[in-house]
From TrEMBL:
InterPro entries: Rhodanese-like_dom (IPR001763), Rhodanese-like_dom_sf (IPR036873). GO terms for molecular function: thiosulfate-cyanide sulfurtransferase activity. It comes from Plectus sambesii. PROSITE patterns: RHODANESE_3. Coiled coil: none annotated. It comes from the Eukaryota. This is Rhodanese domain-containing protein. Pfam families: Rhodanese. Residues 76-177 form the Rhodanese domain. Gene3D superfamilies: Rhodanese-like domain. GO terms for cellular component: mitochondrion.
Length: 178
């Protein structure tokens, strides 16, 4: 395996990949990846080297907890966009909405993030050029997918709220539903 221009022999390829992620490596940092896998023909272990461009890497997605979200909202609200990725009908049927969020359902997130800055501001009344983008949903699963997609697009400082709206409401009795 070539990592940052150096070749390393990895008897445990997953450990090498984990080390690469720890250092925020991308496929551009690798020239080739050598991995042990089970052959589909004879079910024997074999080592195969593939071109790194043929391997998909997902950037590490970071979560934040409710306390961190509260701190961000208090200290740096002008550089923060909160995006609720739940369906509008889900929010309308007595599911609370975190104040300050914009609603972009998960099914629409690709199109929304592909908008240029002016179109995004016009449609969502928020600037796209912020320092932090935090996705929320009911319990954190869909928001993690949205954050992963945004990170794949190269949007920096993307996070998702661990535990989602449920965690937010549990910790904040004063959160008002819209």
């Amino acid at each position: 395996m070539a990592l940052f221009g150096r070749s390393i022999c990895a008897s445990r390829p997953m450990a090498a990949v984990a080390a690469a992620f720890k250092n925020q490596a991308t496929t551009a940092d690798f020239t080739a990846i050598s991995a042990r896998c089970v052959s589909s023909v004879n079910r024997q272990w074999r080592t195969e080297t593939v071109d790194a461009s043929q391997v998909a890497f997902t950037p590490a997605i970071k979560s934040i907890d409710v306390d961190e979200l509260q701190r961000l909202r208090k200290d740096d609200e002008n550089n923060l966009i909160l995006v609720d990725v739940r369906e509008r009908t889900e929010i309308d049927h007595s599911n609370p909405f975190i104040p300050g969020c914009i609603n972009i359902p998960l099914g629409s997130i690709q199109a929304a993030l592909a908008l240029n800055r002016c179109e995004f501001r016009k449609k969502y009344r928020k600037p796209m050029d912020v320092d932090k983008l935090v996705f929320v949903c009911c319990i954190g699963e869909r928001s993690a997918l949205a954050a992963e997609y945004a990170a794949r697009l190269g949007i920096a400082n993307t996070r998702f709220l661990q535990g989602g709206v449920e965690a937010y409401l549990t910790q904040n009795d004063n959160a008002a539903a819209m």
